[in-house]
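Quarterly update from the structural biology core.
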Amino acid sequence: MGNQKCSVMASHVAQKGEYLELDNWSVGNILHKDFTGFAPFRIWSPRTQYYLAVNVQVTGKPHLTGSVGDSPLYKSRCKVIFKGDGEPDTVTRGWIYHEET
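Predicted structure, tokenized:
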């Protein structure tokens, strides 16, 4: 027992159509598929009025938060990486809402 470590790995992978609540953003966002190959997803920026290229990594374990019809709804902490276009990437964090764990 003394040398055993307990770790909980995030098991969910972000998918198109899932909802994001980013820290320090006043509005939520839905993940859209990026068809340019620049990043896996795009999210709408109300500030720039443009879809921004992002990568989303789920970093936390799922927390049951409600339901969608008969399906449970979970939320997990995530890291969102805004892809820099000739500039360094920018990182923020937030919550991603999903039905699968």
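The radius of gyration is 15 Å.
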